Prior knowledge:
It is built from 14 helices and no strands. The protein has helices spanning 2-16, 20-34, 40-63, 67-74, 87-108, 111-125, 133-156, 163-179, 188-193, 199-202, 204-225, 230-249, 253-274, 279-286. The protein is globular.
Amino acid sequence: MLSTLWNFLVTLQLFNQSDMKTIVLPVTVFSQALASHHSVPRFLLVVFWVWMQLLYFTVTNQTFGTAPEEDAVNKPNRPIPAKRISVDSAILLGWVLAPLNVALSYYAGAVPAGLGICILTSIYCRGGGHSHWLSKNGCCAGFYALFEYGATQIADSSKELTYDQLGAVVGSALIIFTTIHAQDFRDDEGDALLGRRTFTLSFPLFSRITMPTFLIAWSMALCLISEANRFVLLALMGLGAVTGTRFLILKSPKHDRLSYLYYNIWLSMAHVGLSSFSLDRVVAWYQ
């Protein structure tokens, strides 16, 4: 009995495995940085809520369309190609998770975010949101905003976020929308074979030019609107310039994978800057 339960829990974790460092960890840290109050029970609730919302998305995403066949080739360690769970059972799991997550969001005090993630998951997986670069980037930005909004609400035990907290969440979504195609360069060869219309394939040269442009521009903007430590912001500027230049000049899949690692470090530092977002500084800058 215990062995069966353990195997089931391992299967659930494998659905989320590849997104732990890109969703669960950064969203949790970001929400704690934004929150004005902290407690161990609330922290644990944030982690569990984020993990469960992510699980609903990953289960749905890995069972939709040709995903099982693609994963069998590109990501054989995922639960379905690894034969840990059948497609039909995974689909049933997704249907169970949807109302369960809404109930969890009600308990945690993050109903709008929980419902939003369910709706956006349907748009992304069933509504074709994944099929075009514009809708894909938009959905990714929306997911981050909803995860961060809900997690911050839970961390702060608050129904409404402050203007500074909302500004940080919106800023995060805009950064994701304009730079998330950093993850697509490394997969260009495989995406081309599958006929996908990613931003990097649709605009090969322009997409690379946007990397130093946006990474440097966002770093400069954060220097103006954030009250974070000056050394952190200067490091953000330097890493943004180096990472953006790498994407522009070094174009092999091997280099793109390493550049994407640097991008994730830059993104984490950008969120450190956003966690000290000040609306007053924005107003003063415009004046």
